[in-house]
Amino acid sequence: MPKSTTIQARIDPETKKAASQILRGLHISLSEAIGMYLRQIIFHGGIPFDLRLPNKETVRALNEAATGVRVKKFDSVDELFEDLNS
Questions:
Q1: Are residues 7 and 1 in contact, defined by beta-carbon separation less than 8 angstroms?
Q2: Number of domains into which the chain is organized
Q3: One digit per residue, pLDDT tens: the chain, 86 residues?
Q4: At 5, which CATH number?
Q5: In angstroms, what CA-CA distances link 54 with 12, 60, 65, 85?
Q6: Are 23 and 30 in contact (CB under 8 A)?
Q7: Is there a single domain that holds both residue 75 and residue 46?
Q8: Are residues 64 and 23 in the same domain?
Q9: Are 63 and 74 in contact (CB under 8 A)?
Q10: Domain, as residue range, for 9
Q11: Are 75 and 61 members of one domain?
């Protein structure tokens, strides 16, 4: 199908740069990737991945992690596994 329309989107430069680097490694242009995404929206009849608000437990865990409450720190992976296995 011939391409005859343009989409303009504003996005922060770091996101564009990081995505472009990954896509370059896949030999896919940003335009091709956007086209793939839009075709997946059509195919799925919506966004092709789950979009959900976090539940109360997840919100609590995220807040605790951000503030350091009830967060354990380990100096090594071995230490982490010792704690998990105890």
A1: no
A2: 2
A3: 677 899 999 999 999 999 999 999 999 999 999 999 999 999 999 999 998 899 999 999 999 999 988 888 899 999 999 999 99
A4: 1.10.1220.10
A5: 24, 10, 15, 28
A6: yes
A7: no
A8: no
A9: no
A10: 1-50
A11: yes
The secondary structure of the chain, three-state, reads CCCCCCCCCCCCHHHHHHHHHHHHHCCCCHHHHHHHHHHHHHHHCCCCCCCCCCCHHHHHHHHHHHHCCCCCCCCCHHHHHHHHHC
Q: Which residue has the tokens 């991945």?
A: 49
pLDDT at 71: 87
Given a contact cutoff of 8 angstroms between Cβ atoms, the answer to whether 41 and 49 are in contact is no
Cα torsion for 33, 37, 42, 46, to the nearest 10°?
-170
Question: Would the pTM count as exceeding 0.85?
Answer: no
